[in-house]
Sequence to fold (494 residues):
Amino acid sequence: MRSLAFAAALLLLAPAAPRAQDAAALYGTHCAQCHGADRFGGAGPALLPENLERLRGPQAIETIANGRPATQMGGYADRLSGDEIAALVAYITTPPATPPVWDMAAMRDTHWVSPDIDRLAAAPVHEADPLHLVVVVESGDHHVTILDGDRFEPVTRFQSRFALHGGPKFSPDGRFVTFASRDGWITRYDLYSLQVVAEIRAGLNTRNLAIADDGSVVAVANYLPRTLVLLDAATLAPRTIIDVADAAGEARSRVSAVYQAAPRGSFIAALKDVAEVWEIPIAARGAQDVRRIRTGEPLDDFFFDPAYRTLVGSSRGGSQTVVIDLDQGQEIRRLAMPGLPHLGSGIAWNWQGRTVMATPNLKDAAVSVIDTTTWELVRRIPTAGAGFFLRGHEGSPYVWTDAFLSRNRDTMQIIDTRTLEVVRTIRPEPGRTAGHVEFSHDGRHAMVSIWEMDGALLVYDAATFQLVKRIPMVKPSGKYSVINKITRSSGTSH
Ligand code: DHE
Fold:
């Protein structure tokens, strides 16, 4: 495999301004068959600027030249010159001349419902306790493993859509799990009969999905187009497309994420480009039904208090963290939270009789702990490096965090929720990235991802911190315990 340095050299050799018509012709000859003539994707992922944000310059050149492991994308270095590859990268990272459209008709064309949907098995076809199952996303080769959460044995493994992102969401009874891919595919899977039961493409570049508390509606947050889409949860049939724009209807906005706000019977959405937080009734028929809460600047990372009365929000740009009272619909506090807290990974627990929230910091080697009544910082817990995820469980006095964004990314740290101190530092597999923890249904085990192509899911005894099992997996990212999610365990995301 040639190196990124080689790819960077190709970039330097590239003509200053490749001719657009040549690049379009090259695309038509070499790429369109898999990625679609419109660049919306097909057998391969969409090649539009929003979808390529995570594959910049030299990496894009490297992928075209040498292919992508564990996919059907082979290398083109023997057929295309360096200039041609650079011209193709410029082409696919430039927005199309006509803004892409993804409307109700396009969605309906991709909607699929299993012919078996009305005669699914009445009971699980496997031996595992269905509420103890753990869903593991293997991002390395785009697969999902369903794990028996008692024996830690895989029940099944299946291919997912390309690049799942965000937590999959469960039906209230835990039977069905719904996934979102970055290319906009929404897939509903039955954990009893172990099969996909419905699918639709709800956008061209999607952030995440949420399921209403009563399980009736799925909401999908899109960057491209600028929409929030509501689907019927059982069949994924499209219900409503909400165009996302400011109150005047002038400035359009990407939707950073959408969350269900169970006690409120609504969804809450974070907007990337407009200074509003949206509360959307689950029966919304359009933007006219949305409650708009004005904010000082766009907020795109959220933490909710367990009762969903307050929202803590920040912008990834990082200039401020604000507390919004959702009932009053206004900002009530500004917080000094240095180090860019990753609010989306925040969790809450009881400490000395009060509810505190804690978040890893994206730009600081620390976990911040905030009192959710006074909104004062009660502790800054130094860690091995800037981290991404933090997890706990009612059945354990410990929370686990990583140093995913630092040079110590092979390190996990365990914090005692009673003393707010790091009590153990482990390097599960030295030199290999460790990140994202989820507890088993009873809180007795903590599962850690070794985030490598030849990676693994490591199962630890959550009380002694001893490794009890290593299950090989292909770059496992997130893992999700059915019962922790449907009971909204305070130690995990929802
Ligand atoms: Fe995520 C969840 C946003 C990059 C892995 N990520 C989320 C959520 C949001 C978010 C809003 C919560 C949605 C939900 O679960 O419903 N993520 C972002 C970003 O803005 C960011 C920084 C840039 C981007 O490209 O989107 C980003 N995320 C990443 C990654 O690079 C990660 C590490 C690898 C990947 O798969 O892309 C990554 N994000 C995850 C995971 C979750 C997630 C595993 C679910 C966490 C959970 O336990 O619920």
Observations:
- The mean pLDDT is 93.
- The pocket of heme D is lined by residues 54, 139, 165-167, 207-208, 256-257, 344, 388, 436, 477-478, 493 (CB under 6 Å).
- DSSP finds seven helices and 33 strands in the chain.
- The CA atoms of residues 62 and 489 lie 42 Å apart.
